[in-house]
Design a protein that fits this description.
The chain is of the alpha+beta class and 567 residues long. The chain has two domains: 4-30 and 80-435, no CATH class; 451-565, no CATH class. The protein has 26 helices and twelve strands. The strands form five sheets. Strands 9-10-12-11 form a four-stranded mixed beta sheet, sandwiched between helices. Strands 1-8 form a two-stranded antiparallel sheet. α5 packs parallel to α8, α6 (128-139) runs antiparallel to α20 (393-413) and α6 packs parallel to α21 (417-435). The longest helix has 30 residues, at 231-260. It is elongated.
Length: 567
């Protein structure tokens, strides 16, 4: 492994790049985020504060919030628990507040991802330059920039994957009975993946199957025979699984409980096709690119640009090609082939149940062209619950960055020693140019509660708050506002998996105001009915109806009204 000073220098480099790629966030990181209250980031600001409350003793539960989706409560597994992704944010949230904690957590996700890839490539090249290049590519892929833009702190936690596959490979080829360090790395990394995203866990397990198949195919008969016939190898594998079991159990338990209650919805094949990748997603520059993004978006359909920002990069592809051209010089050719198989396997799975071109289904004689994901959809448990299959493309990027690191090492060795540093710097600069999104002027917005939330916080009543129309109750910012008013709330950020209470209430409260909806609010212990007149075209006439239904106004704060039940 690299020396600590090299890790520190690489980490400082990745942090500097993270600040540059997210500029000007550094100027307002304690009170602003990309997207303000309108993106998913505001939910993760709230979630950082929720986890902080658990570790400081304020909250009794870690994955269940009794104050949201009140009175049923809210299992956070309806989205992603993401504890491992948010853990680095918690100390900074305690010191500087949850907004700062969230932003610093985002920056650290770039740093940790870069360092993890740096370590993996260094393990097989002993080249600091090639490792730094591979880490830069992996940390600043447009896919990670897109998830940063969307506020997906959970999906930005990509550091565990290089560590997991590095550990897995070392466990497979170990000659001793137990190599506890690599076993622990493999097991703990898998556990951290499980505590980051269920998408990532399921996809990691699928890629693991491909990785293992590649090991059997490319390591040679003697190695496969050793792996399969020596009892020590089976013991080592079983011990690794046992080490990961407690982490997987704790991470999976709330999801399995929710699935058993019908809380995780299956997606249709058509739905999965809608969120499937195209080959152009991997080959065309991202729509976020500061120079080419607008032009590319005019050529290709980028309606799913966040999940579909899977651009590998020309520098990356060139280095991958060089790794294969000069493969005879590699110390470990089988790992190159294994990585290539995993890279291509992830690409094919990410393309969904049926073949697409530019978001349109490809038809041959009027029939769809089936792909391997259709088999996975029909036969792999939980696969049908995965909404955005194109997220599998991350693993194509993962192995592409690793192979690019191998190719960079072979390239740099062919350059005179006095020029290698300049060559590596030039390659890093070219890769960054390909990925740079430009400054986020106009996108970084303050995060703050509304005047009505401060007013609610001062009220003695302990009844629930409802935001109407009820469709607004599942907006991310409503969850964040609860940090200020600290009252029970009938909604929550349920995303693609609505609760049974929401399914029951939604059709009733959509007709608000009428007698049934008002009686239902009373039945569900609602005390404060928050209404934004901008959501109702004729609010003046509606006010008379509210009075006739037994509601009375309490206040108007910042243009938002609060009603309650008349005595």
């Amino acid at each position: 492994m690299p020396k600590l000073k090299h890790f520190a220098l690489a980490g400082a480099f990745f942090l500097l790049l993270a600040l540059l790629f997210t500029y000007p966030l550094i100027l307002d990181f304690t009170d602003s985020i990309v997207g303000g209250t309108q993106g998913d980031g505001i939910y993760f600001v709230w979630l950082v504060r929720w986890y902080q409350g658990f570790f400081t003793g304020e909250n009794a539960h870690i994955f269940f919030n009794p104050m949201m989706n009140y009175p049923q409560g809210w299992n956070l597994s309806t989205t992603d628990t993401s504890l491992a992704a948010l853990a680095p944010s918690i100390p900074f949230s305690m010191a500087l507040g949850p907004v700062a904690g969230y932003n610093i957590g985002m920056w650290l996700s770039f740093v940790f991802s870069g360092l993890a890839m740096y370590a993996w490539v260094y393990r097989h090249t002993r080249s600091h330059a090639a490792s730094l290049l591979a880490g830069t590519i992996y940390a600043f892929f447009p896919n990670r920039i897109a998830h940063y833009t969307a506020g997906h702190l959970n999906l930005s936690a990509t550091a565990w994957f290089p560590l997991y596959f590095m550990g897995l490979y070392e466990v497979l080829r170990a000659k001793e009975k137990f190599n506890w360090g690599w076993m622990a790395l493999c097991a703990v990394s898998l556990g951290l993946i499980a505590f980051t995203s269920m998408y990532y866990l399921l996809f990691t397990l699928l890629i693991t199957v491909i990785f293992l198949a590649g090991y059997v195919l490319f390591e040679g008969r003697a190695e496969v025979r050793r792996l399969l016939t020596q009892p020590a190898n089976w013991l080592r594998g079983a011990a690794t699984v046992a080490l990961s079991a407690p982490f997987l159990y704790m991470a999976l338990r709330p999801f399995l409980s929710l699935a058993g209650q019908g809380g995780l919805a299956d997606r249709s094949v058509d739905y999965m096709n809608e969120f499937a990748a195209n080959i152009t997603d991997f080959l065309a520059p991202a729509s976020s690119h500061f120079l080419l993004g607008g032009w590319i978006s005019d050529i290709f359909d980028r309606s799913q640009w966040i999940e579909g920002s899977l651009y590998v990069g020309m520098v990356t592809l060139a280095l991958v090609v060089l790794a294969f051209v000069w493969r005879k010089q590699l110390a470990n050719k089988p790992l190159l082939y294994i990585s290539a198989l995993a890279m291509l396997g992830a690409l094919v799975i990410a393309m969904g149940p049926h073949l697409h071109w530019d978001r349109e289904l490809v038809l041959i004689n009027g029939e769809r062209v089936p792909l391997p994901s259709l088999l996975l959809y029909n036969y792999v448990p939980f696969f049908a619950k995965m909404r955005a299959i194109m997220r599998m493309g991350l693993f194509t990027l993962l192995f592409a960055a690793f192979v690019a690191g191998l190719g960079a090492d072979l390239l740099l060795k062919r350059i005179r020693s006095q020029w290698r540093g300049w060559a590596a710097a030039g390659l890093i600069a070219l890769a960054l140019f390909e990925f740079y999104p430009g400054p986020f002027y106009g996108s970084i917005k303050p995060v703050e509660a509304r005047p009505v939330d401060y007013w609610l916080a001062e009220q003695a009543g302990q009844g629930a708050v409802v935001q109407l129309p009820f469709s607004r109750s599942v907006d991310q910012e409503q969850v964040y506002y609860a940090l200020t008013h600290k009252k029970p709330f009938t909604g929550g950020f349920f995303n693609a998996n609505q609760t049974s209470q929401f399914h029951y209430l939604a059709p009733i409260l959509e007709r608000f105001p009428d007698e049934h909806s008002v009686n239902t609010l009373r039945e569900y212990q609602v005390e404060f009915i928050v209404i934004d007149p901008a959501d109702y075209p004729d609010f003046a006439a509606m006010q008379d109806l509210l009075t006739s239904l037994g509601l009375e106004p309490l206040t108007q704060q910042g243009g938002v009204w609060v009603y309650t039940f008349s005595e």
